[in-house]
Amino acid sequence: MSDIATRYARLSDDFAATVAAVPGDRWSSESPCEGWTARDVVAHVVETQGMFLRLVGRDLGDIPSVAEDPSAAWDAARVVVQADLDDPERAGAEFDGFFGRTTFAEAVDRFLNFDLITHRWDLARATGQDERIDPADIAWAREATRVFGPHLRREGVCGPELTPPDGADEQTRFLAFLGRRAW
User: How buried is residue 52: exposed, middle or buried, by Cβ count under 10 Å (0-12/13-18/19+)?
Assistant: First the structure.
């Protein structure tokens, strides 16, 4: 298994555990993503899995609806992506992406893995769960943002950078960089 496939497996497991732990009455809770509920966060993450598969001519297939069963929808979506990452030929499928020629696996790492870290925090915050992000994932995600350049601040990506309080920890500073108020 490649480093990318391993990272995706671990992060998608973390996201799955967070989805599975959402209390039934918290799915409509506001998330840190303006205008999105907790359920909307999961829907976005599921939809982006399909979006990246379509870039290489594949799709998620018939998966459960996030509206009906967010946990089953996420589990089904991640199984498809993981299978493609575990297959060297499918993982290496090339396409012309936003930042030039790339492979499916590289795009998953750059975008989907970043989203899994960030949106797991969003979902945890919205639903009252443990919001801690592994410090190694914070370091990895911060480095991943370097390739985004000004595109990180495009409409629908991340909000304007916020100024964290003096003495803020690395997670709070990272989330502030992404436009999220973690304090």
Answer: buried
